[in-house]
């Protein structure tokens, strides 16, 4: 680990970890912070066994903890690699790849399952699956009929562990393998995540429940969850999950950047918390609205363990926290990430001139949507940004759409919409045609073919 933080920052982070272990009564807790793709701080506190014997403290880099639903992010990544390879479509009904699911879950789309918007039941019908030995796919399949669809697909957020059991089977089926083997071959091996496994490998923390009113603990069971394993089976370490944070941040190279950006986009929003959304679900990732900043990652819990992986998608800073306690920790991950940002703010990239394509350069500067001023600025990806000059107005990024002179919106109101510069008789750009609107170089330019025309009297000082 290349530690680049100031001693005072490290001391504060260590203290936050120690205080959480003590106040939340955690048998042990480990954490790490990622910046620029590197683990810049890690720490561990407490003991990993039942008796707290000397020497049983966690190795913050090498002790395994069960990561629970963070496993879903690996399964989602494998599904999206299949999408990249043309084997699966997000709009495909599940039955297109698992034909035995004729109705019920079979009619839900792959994208809806990834986005927790399929309306599929949360848990299995049998005993508490997280605490009992799991069965194979044939044992899960009978509950996936019409009664498993509890809400109309695509209409609301409804977290479903069962849905990810289905996605794990789908991944294995389209690759003629198993989800475990696919995840290992596509991600764990290329990223060097040698300590991420389906079952614990020493050194590994023992899962414990802490009595709510006395300082005693109870060992929790551990088993193979079978067909439900894709929902929460994996074990990992701080060092390995720091590498996985690079995947969530879109900097790892094992998924296309555009794929990761799609994972960040909310597919469903948990609106139970009031008017302003704070938590949603993208394609296999939880997303948080942290005071206007987008965070992505996933929480995880299984009996005896709680974990969190969270990344600020703008900066790429990430945090990993794991404990071997069923009741878990509080807002420690957010406090660690905030401490890093506040005490060691990232320097902006140095400005330097760069090449700008000629067809972008002729579009930069002010434009007007009716009387509303907008501005086009050259972007860093061969495209440009359209923004309101006064802080108002619809904003989007645009990139080449594949046809000369045609641009496609990437985000905001104009995501997916087409923009075409229209040239006048002199060959220069007269106006921009955007989703039926006309953007002109002057407000309501009468020479720019404004729909509905421009009043012949022009701009006046009276009604």
From TrEMBL:
Residues 356-441 form the DUF7586 domain. InterPro entries: AmpC-like, Beta-lactam-related, Beta-lactam/transpept-like, DUF7586. Residues 15-331 form the Beta-lactamase-related domain. Coiled coil: none annotated. SUPFAM superfamilies: beta-lactamase/transpeptidase-like. PANTHER family: D-ALANYL-D-ALANINE CARBOXYPEPTIDASE, D-ALANYL-D-ALANINE-CARBOXYPEPTIDASE/ENDOPEPTIDASE AMPH. This is Beta-lactamase.
């Amino acid at each position: 680990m290349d530690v680049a933080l100031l001693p005072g920052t490290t001391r504060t982070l260590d203290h936050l970890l120690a205080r959480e272990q003590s106040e939340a009564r955690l048998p042990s807790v480990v954490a790490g912070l990622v910046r620029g793709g590197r683990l810049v701080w890690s720490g561990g506190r407490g003991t990993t066994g039942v008796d707290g014997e000397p020497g049983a403290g966690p190795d913050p880099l090498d002790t395994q903890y069960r990561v629970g639903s963070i496993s879903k992010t690996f399964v989602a990544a494998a599904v999206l690699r299949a999408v990249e390879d043309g084997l699966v479509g997000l709009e495909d009904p599940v039955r297109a790849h698992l034909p035995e699911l004729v109705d019920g879950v079979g009619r839900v789309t792959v994208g809806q399952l990834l986005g927790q918007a399929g309306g599929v039941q949360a848990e299995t019908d049998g005993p508490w699956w997280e605490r009992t030995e799991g069965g194979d796919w044939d044992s899960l399949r009978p509950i996936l009929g019409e009664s498993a669809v509890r809400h109309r697909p695509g209409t609301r957020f409804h977290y479903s562990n069962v849905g990810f059991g289905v996605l794990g089977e789908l991944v294995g089926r389209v690759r003629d393998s198993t989800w475990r083997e696919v995840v290992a071959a596509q991600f764990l091996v290329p990223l060097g995540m040698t300590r991420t496994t389906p079952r614990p490998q020493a050194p590994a923390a023992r899962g414990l429940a802490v009595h709510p009113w006395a300082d005693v603990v109870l060992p929790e069971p551990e088993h193979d969850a079978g067909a439900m394993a894709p929902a929460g089976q994996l074990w990992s370490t701080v060092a390995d999950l720091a590498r996985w944070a690079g995947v969530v941040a879109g900097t790892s190279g094992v998924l296309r950047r555009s794929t990761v950006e799609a994972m960040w986009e909310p597919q469903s929003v948990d609106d139970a918390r009031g008017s302003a959304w704070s938590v949603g679900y993208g394609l296999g990732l939880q997303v948080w609205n942290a005071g206007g900043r987008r965070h992505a990652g996933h929480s995880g819990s299984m009996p005896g363990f709680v974990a969190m992986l969270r990344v600020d998608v703008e900066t790429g800073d990430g945090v990993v926290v794991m404990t071997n306690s069923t009741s878990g920790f509080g807002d420690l991950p957010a406090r660690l990430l905030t401490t890093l940002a506040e005490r060691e703010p990232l320097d902006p990239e140095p400005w330097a001139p760069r090449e700008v394509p000629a067809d972008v350069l002729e579009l930069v500067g002010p434009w007007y949507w009716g009387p509303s001023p907008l501005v086009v600025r050259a972007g860093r990806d061969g495209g440009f940004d359209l923004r309101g000059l006064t802080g108002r107005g619809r904003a989007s990024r645009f990139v080449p759409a594949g046809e000369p002179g045609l641009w496609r919106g990437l985000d905001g109101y104009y995501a997916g919409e087409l923009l075409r510069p229209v040239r006048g008789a002199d060959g220069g750009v007269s106006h921009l045609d955007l989703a039926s609107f006309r953007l002109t170089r002057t407000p309501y330019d009468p020479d720019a073919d404004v729909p509905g025309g421009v009043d012949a009297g022009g701009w006046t000082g009276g009604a």
